[in-house]
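Entry 14. Two folds queued back to back today. First construct below, sequence then structure tokens.
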Amino acid sequence: MDDPNDFGNILLVEDNPGDVRWTKEMLKEAGLNPTVHVVTDGSEALDFIRQRGEYTDVPRPDVVLLDLHLPRMDGDEVLTRLGDEVSDIPIIALSGSQRIGAVKLEDMGDRVAARLEKPIEPDEVRDVVQLVDDDD
């Protein structure tokens, strides 16, 4: 990402409409200008990332913000099913529970670039953007 304010395409995998609104607001407050695509469960996330089904014409995401607690298929299962096919896409795990999120993150190894506790704050978003951008 050449311009730190142009964060490209973000896939937000989140089933809570309030958290979707909050995340979009925090991205804006952090001074970022991404195009945010939202899916509400793990199955849709897989389809979006793999550009299949109703998502055949979507852009490949530059970053995935993945809620760990999803209906139908949780975030950990999404990561397991994706395996190494998204090693070029930074995945940031979102968790509303420090205890559960921390345990799951340990099991995720290097499959996630970072983890944010919900509700996320603008300064945390900026820090993660810097971390992901530095890894490019």
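Second construct, same run, same settings:
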Amino acid sequence: MKYILESPIVGKIGQQKFKTAIVWRNGAFITDEPEKIGGQDLGPDPYSLLLSSLVACTLATLRLYIDHKSLEIKDITVEANMYQKIVKEQIVTYIDRSITFDEALTPEIKQRLLKIAESCPVSKILKGNVEIATQLP
């Protein structure tokens, strides 16, 4: 098996409710929960991190394509939010993603960029089958 990341993401929590330290290959950051559920809102919550991954991947994928095709598109904005509903006695998560460009684009270019956004790796992960193997050594 070949991992995508060279080193795993490591998280630690102490006795402060919800505040975690996340260490990645080049630094660290704090996550927390909003005050309304008992956190101190010192960093993004897990849902915000998940959506941030989708937004960042979408932006990077679009920028790579736009630059490769030498399109005159300067600024891209991506917004994402999510909600959950119970469908047939199961929780289903819906993610809404909106992409805007500062330039006027033809319908053909818009359609192509939409397909490119849908092909970002994080989109594929979220839409695909994910299995999580958890161990307690």
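Quick look at the second one. The longest strand covers residues 76-87. The helical segments are 46-68, 107-118, 121-127.
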